Amino acid sequence: MYSSEVTNTTNILVKVGTTVIISNFDGKILLERRNDNSMWGIPGGSIEPGETVSGVSKRDIKEETKLNVRITGFVGIYSNLAAGRIVTCPDSADRVQLVDVVFIAEIASGELRLSNESLDLKFFERSALPTVSVPPAITHSGLFRRKTKQYLLI
Q1: Rounded to an integer, what distance in angstroms lies between the CA atom of residue 118 and that of residue 65?
Q2: 113 Cβ neighbours under 8 A, 6+ residues apart
Q3: 8 Å CB contact between 110 and 24
Q4: CA–CA separation, 84 vs 2, rounded Å?
Q5: Which residues pair with 4 in a beta bridge?
Q6: C-alpha to C-alpha distance for 151 and 143, rounded to whole angstroms
Q7: Cα-based torsion angle of the residue sequence 131, 114, 71, 15 in order, rounded to the nearest 10 degrees
Q8: In DSSP terms, which residues pair with 13 in a beta bridge?
Q9: What is the pLDDT of residue 150?
Q10: Residue 7 burial by CB count (10 A; 0-12/13-18/19+): exposed, middle or buried?
């Protein structure tokens, strides 16, 4: 499903999405085990026409986790093809280059619950993150392991 090889860019779409790094009061990181590929990743989703990046972040987190979040920081924008940013969509067979805008947020309200997009939602200790993760979770694994609230663009 994920690849870093691009041999022909003619039929590759570019898809911009957001992901949100959410930690709980213990400093654990929330990850979602995705329904489409059974892999762990950072919750988030694709930008729809007319949406802002902060708006889609809040909307998708609410849809996927039932949590309301407050955006507290910006991590970066990720498009590096070497990090597995080319995806073959299982439902359409489209090849897509993923561009992720990554934010940090805190939980404002709500109770963590599964949606139909998730097999599981779990807060992980920074030192015990799952090894099989989807981008951009792979890119951020080093950042997650730090205790700091400040994340740097890499």
Answers
A1: 9
A2: 65, 66, 121
A3: no
A4: 5
A5: none
A6: 7
A7: 70
A8: 96
A9: 41
A10: exposed
46 bridge partner residues = 17
Q: How far apart are CA 143 and CA 29, in angstroms?
A: 11
pLDDT, one tens digit per residue, over 9-50 is 667 788 888 989 998 888 899 999 988 778 888 898 889 889
63: tokens are 């849809």
Domains of the chain: 2-144 (3.90.79.10)
pLDDT in tens, 93-148: 677 788 888 899 999 999 999 999 899 999 998 888 887 666 554 454 455 544 43
**Among 55, 45, 58, 48, CA closest to 18:** 45
